[in-house]
């Protein structure tokens, strides 16, 4: 098939460091244009990549763009996705789909009305590690699923050299909206929808300092929770404890699934690969599980490639907007529960299953040693 033509809106770090380089491995799409509200950033990306730069309205109007890749900041996802949809373009959005449930629903209603598709990251659940975990769970290795334990913590975005960390400490940011989708997406695909949440939160440091870049030394006022602890009850009974923090001394993560017969320790869901370990009731220790065929290195763009292929083949795409909406609903419920310190119900969702079959970038006919990673 001819590659679908992709226009990038948002020419920041994610575009320059990840999506543009990775696009070379996926023949299903071709990046043909870029745009940003800051024309200087668009020109910089164009110079570095050779991709023509346009204004945002020009890109959205272009007959040469089939899919808009929305890499803007989360607070702009809603506006940019809606504008692309109204221009008759399919949309692949970075996470989250929107920062509020009402805005996310407006995107999906607009797409249905215009007859275009919306897909949303993360696509790491399509990588070899989480795909293996899903197979094991579906095969019943856990026995009766009981609980999941999630911890993601570090000391703050500014300490990772981010030149503009301000948005991570304002509404629409925080550890939950930044990192929550990486954990909540596979949990929803493994165990179905979340029904109810309870939560508490805090702001440990009311101000932060920008440590690098053009704003170095300036102060950030923290106006969204920087540490959240939540309990999620799934419709089918599973309980998950989820802790997300920008307030702790070092980076670490825990992603463990527990059942009556066994437990699984999963890799960082921000990655496509990484080890999976299992411990059964009669085991003395954990043992590693061999991963299924699939992408194990930096695979960003896999979900976009699958969307492009799905459009051409007239089949559902895997990076489901319904799951993305549910993740937004869950995160909003966590924030509301923490704010009011009472349980909050999550709107129901009919979970959309991904399709069987090969993924872009993975040739499962080859010996494992020769498969694309």
* Overall radius of gyration: 20 Å
- The CATH superfamily of the largest domain is Dihydrodipicolinate Reductase, domain 2
CATH architecture of the largest domain: 2-Layer Sandwich
> What CATH first level of the largest domain would be assigned?
Alpha Beta
Strand content: 15-25%
Distance, first to last CA: 22 Å
Q: Which structural traits does this protein have?
A:
about 375 residues; alpha/beta; Rossmann fold; Dihydrodipicolinate Reductase, domain 2; 2 domains; 9-stranded mixed sheet; 5-stranded parallel sheet; 16 strands; about 30% helix; globular
SSE topology:
Blueprint: E1 4-9, H1 13-22, E2 29-35, H2 39-49, H3 56-61, E3 67-70, H4 74-86, E4 90-93, H5 101-114, E5 118-120, H6 128-138, E6 145-153, H7 174-191, E7 194-202, E8 207-209, E9 219-221, E10 227-234, E11 239-245, E12 252-259, E13 262-265, E14 276-280, E15 287-289, H8 302-313, H9 321-340, E16 344-345
Parallel strand pairs: 1-2, 1-3, 3-4, 4-5, 6-11
Antiparallel strand pairs: 6-12, 7-10, 7-16, 8-9, 10-11, 12-13, 13-14, 14-15
If you had to describe this structure to a student in words, what would you say it looks like?
With 373 residues, the chain is α/β, with parallel strands linked by helices. It has two domains: 4-124 and 299-320, Rossmann fold; 125-286, Dihydrodipicolinate Reductase, domain 2. It has helices at 13-22, 39-49, 56-61, 74-86, 101-114, 128-138, 174-191, 302-313, 321-340; strands at 4-9, 29-35, 67-70, 90-93, 118-120, 145-153, 194-202, 207-209, 219-221, 227-234, 239-245, 252-259, 262-265, 276-280, 287-289, 344-345. The strands form three sheets. Strands 15-14-13-12-6-11-10-7-16 form a nine-stranded mixed sheet. The longest helix has 20 residues, at 321-340. It starts with a strand and ends in a 28-residue tail after the last strand. Residues 363-373 have low confidence and may be disordered.
């Amino acid at each position: 098939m001819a590659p679908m033509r992709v226009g990038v809106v948002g020419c920041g770090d994610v575009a320059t460091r990840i999506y543009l380089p990775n696009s070379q491995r996926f023949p299903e799409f071709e990046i043909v244009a870029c745009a940003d509200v800051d024309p200087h950033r668009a020109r910089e990306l164009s110079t570095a990549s050779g991709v023509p730069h346009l204004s945002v309205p020009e890109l959205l109007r272009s007959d040469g763009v089939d899919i808009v890749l929305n890499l803007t900041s989360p607070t702009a996802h809603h506006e940019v996705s809606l504008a692309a949809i109204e221009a008759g373009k399919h949309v692949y959005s970075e996470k989250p789909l929107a920062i509020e449930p009402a805005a996310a629903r407006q995107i999906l209603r607009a797409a249905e009305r215009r007859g275009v598709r919306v897909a949303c990251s993360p696509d790491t659940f399509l990588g070899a590690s989480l795909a293996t975990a899903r197979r094991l769970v579906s095969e019943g290795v856990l026995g009766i699923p009981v609980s999941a334990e999630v911890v993601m913590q570090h000391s703050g975005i500014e300490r990772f050299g981010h030149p503009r960390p301000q948005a991570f400490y304002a509404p629409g940011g925080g550890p939950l909206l930044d990192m929550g989708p990486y954990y909540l997406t596979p949990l929803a695909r493994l165990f179905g929808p979340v029904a109810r949440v309870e939560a508490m939160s805090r702001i440990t440091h009311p101000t932060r300092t920008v440590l690098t870049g053009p704003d170095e030394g300036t102060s950030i006022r923290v106006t969204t929770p920087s540490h959240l602890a939540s309990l999620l009850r799934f419709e089918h009974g599973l309980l998950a404890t989820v802790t997300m923090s920008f307030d702790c001394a070092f980076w670490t993560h825990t992603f463990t699934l527990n059942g009556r017969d066994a437990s699984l320790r999963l890799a960082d869901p921000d990655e496509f690969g990484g080890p999976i370990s299992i411990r059964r009731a009669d085991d003395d220790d954990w043992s590693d599980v061999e991963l299924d065929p699939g992408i194990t290195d930096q695979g960003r763009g896999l979900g976009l490639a699958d969307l492009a292929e799905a459009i051409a083949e007239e089949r559902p795409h895997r990076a489901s907007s319904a799951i993305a909406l549910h993740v937004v609903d869950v995160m909003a419920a966590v924030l509301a529960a923490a704010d009011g310190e009472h349980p909050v119900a999550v709107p129901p969702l009919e979970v959309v299953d991904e399709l069987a079959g090969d993924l872009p970038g993975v040739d499962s006919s080859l010996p494992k040693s020769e498969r694309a990673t």
